[in-house]
Write a structure and sequence with these properties.
By secondary structure, the protein is α+β, with helices and mostly antiparallel strands. It has four helices and 13 strands. β4 and β5 form a beta hairpin.
């Protein structure tokens, strides 16, 4: 597991003032946990983006929190990131402090490796999943899970969750008979266009979802100057 650190400091501004932070390249955030009270933070947007590229949502980050002359370190995972729907820049981050020795539940990205021989026959790979819900101790959390697709020789062959080779100490929480990826028979141009049309609709829905998230951020900023921008309910409760 790679070791990643991120410098932050306690945030003292909330509401509409967070817009001014963002203009200066500062990202509002919050950290909380099962035994951790919600704490508002701020950090360099550039630093967060660099660390997040490597950590994603599954690698532990050593969050260095400065308050005056004091500094403490919390081991955290990125719990949630709100992105701007147009420029994709982060608007707000939730960190979750982990407890050493306690099993965590999270979604880990699936990475498909190798080549499926059946594709050369005209087959089409259809993915049913792109991440897997697992549980593991913090020290055993994988950054990603690799799946070898070279076993897909003929049409209608499928790799199921039960076929995935999980790292030691990692347990899947998904039904073992859930399909992960299937080699389907060739489809006509009309069917392909129909599938592409469906994909376009899905993409539009995802964009709309991000827009709604951003609208929620803007709404919360305008409700109360003492309220933090785009904070989770846990942070709002802690800052009242």
């Amino acid at each position: 597991m790679i070791s990643l650190s991120l410098k932050t400091e306690k945030r003292k501004v909330f509401g509409k003032q967070n817009k001014q932070l963002r203009k200066k390249g500062i990202l509002p955030a919050v950290v909380y946990g099962a035994k951790t009270e919600s704490l508002p933070l701020q950090m360099s947007l550039h630093d967060f983006r660099e660390v997040y590229k490597k950590a994603g949502d599954t690698d532990i980050i050593n969050l260095k929190i400065k308050e005056g002359e004091k500094e403490e370190t919390k081991q955290v995972l990125v719990k949630d990131v709100v992105f701007h729907h147009l420029n994709s820049l982060p608007l707000h981050v939730d960190f979750y402090e982990i407890e050493k020795g306690k099993v965590l539940t999270t979604d880990v990205p699936l990475v498909f490796e190798g080549e499926a021989p059946g594709v050369k026959k005209g087959g089409v790979l259809v993915k049913s999943m792109d991440e897997l819900e697992i549980e593991a101790l913090p020290k055993d959390l994988p950054h990603q899970i690799s799946i070898d697709i070279s076993s897909l020789l003929d049409f209608d062959q499928t790799i199921y969750v039960k076929d995935i080779k999980l790292p030691e100490g990692v347990k899947s929480l998904v039904d073992p008979n859930t399909p992960v990826i299937t080699l389907s028979a060739p489809i006509s141009e009309e069917e392909l266009e129909a599938e592409l049309g469906k994909g376009k609709e899905v993409e539009e829905v995802e964009v709309e979802t991000e827009e709604k998230k951003e609208e929620k951020v803007a709404t919360e900023e305008g409700e109360n100057k003492e309220q933090p921008v785009s904070e989770t309910k846990k942070e709002e409760t802690a800052e009242k």
